[in-house]
Amino acid sequence: MPAIKIPLPGFEDLDEIIVSETMIKRRVRRLGAEIAAAFGGEEITVVAIINGALFFAADLLREIRRPVRLDCIRVSSYRNETRAVGKPEIVHSMTIDIANRHVLLIDDILDTGKTLSAVVPLIKKLNPASVKTCVLLDKKGRREVDFDADFVGFQIPDKFVVGYGLDFAERYRNLPCIGVLKPHLQNPPEWR
Ligand code: IMP
Ligand code: MG
């Protein structure tokens, strides 16, 4: 993917933008159509992993022109580091029943694969009719556990990115694009 020059003020903490707001909008619209087609006439039970998938799921769901139910789970793994630490833990689980339902699990980014490869079996234990996964971003080069998502927005290089839901220490989620955080900002002790 070609690097895009940073056109806007207020983005000075980014080294480069790798997915622009326009690219996100266009891809999310297509993904919504792909997902609607893949699920056919079935109602989709979406399980979004918050906080990261919040922005992506909110936009994507409005592009899925099918009946949808929504629930969220919270999984912790990053703890203000740019590299995953330890095993992902489910901190807050689902409240709706997913037995015999067609589930679409949504996350912001597939990195080492540890999160989704831990969460999918937990969801399968609840006897859904099917489970599919969708991620906005995929860093294939970083995989430690073999895992592929059914729907992927963009393949990206092995760089720490923020924006459109992705954070560093809970910051930058509200950037409308996805960019690489300047290295010197990836470790400020005052943000812990
Ligand atoms: P995995 O378990 O290593 O696949 O990582 C998945 C989680 O790590 C994501 O849901 C993100 O919260 C976090 N993560 C991985 N890479 C990045 C990144 O480049 N920026 C921000 N968060 C990331
Ligand atoms: Mg995160």
Just give the CATH class of the domain at 23-156: Alpha Beta
The residue fraction in helices comes out at 10-25%
CATH fold description of the domain at 23-156? Rossmann fold
CATH architecture of the domain at 23-156: 3-Layer(aba) Sandwich
Number of helices: 3
Mean pLDDT: 90
Oligomer description:
single chain
Widest sheet: strand ordering: 4-3-2-5-6-7
What form results from the Cα inertia axes?
Answer: globular
What is the number of strand segments?
A: 9
Radius of gyration: 16 Å
Residue fraction in strands: 25-35%
Largest sheet: 6 strands, mixed
- Structural class, please? alpha/beta
The rounded distance between the terminal residues' Cα atoms is 32 Å
N-to-C order of helices and strands = EHEHEEEHEEEE
Bound molecules: inosinic acid, magnesium ion
